[in-house]
Amino acid sequence: MRRVCQDGINYYVFEHLADQAGLSHAIFTRHGGVSHPPFATLNLSRSVGDVPEAVAENHRRATATLGIALERLCTSWQVHGAQALVLDQPNWGERPLPQADILLTNQPDVWLSMRFADCVPILLYDPVHQAAGLAHAGWRGTLAGAARAAVVAMSAAFGSRPADLLAGIGPAIGPCCYRVGPEVAEAFTRAFGPEATAWLRLADGGGPHLDLWESNRAQLVAAGVRQIEVAALCTAHLRHEFFSHRGERGRTGRFGVVIGLREGNG
User: What pLDDT, in 10s, does the model give residues 3-15?
Assistant: First the structure.
């Protein structure tokens, strides 16, 4: 990945997505906003207890950095599932928001946006049909097959061929820090069989550690995706850079991810 600093805002981009004309994306860090601890500083969630005016200013700064209008954002109420939503218009001002953990669009200047603090951001781009996708996968979403569901939904909505897709697996809690209970390990073993043993590791101190990066990458591969970039950045280990629900014991903000198609992308 490539780290960018622009107008006081820090964000990351995937190398193979950054080279695509007509596509823009950003995985923001926790820096560059106005929120106070424990949400310092670029918290983009309105549901964690932060001051609404601070969250609004953080959104304004983030979108201005990308040169897009705040009113062109699309988002959802994330519920840790695998439901896909195809969007052709912004929904930023709508309340209540639709429930979905996969957002898709093929419309220019419709910007998909989600929030994260350990769960896996999955970015997808179809350069043939000019379509973009964004998925949110914690352990529940990974267990539900959100990565595969996003690929299937893009194929159904836009005719995307999985082999054409460019995918990015963003910063999320890594296997170094993500200890899970035996019930979670058993659920993965039941759902995925022997393949799940590669995603569950025993670490010092006992107990399985779940590899969300690899489990989501494997789902993309199984769905036919061949071009995948994995950030391999652990949010719990890099708490100075990203918000981490696990690393900060639940009292923290959410960093944002945005992806969309520019006008005139052909």
Answer: 999 989 999 999 9
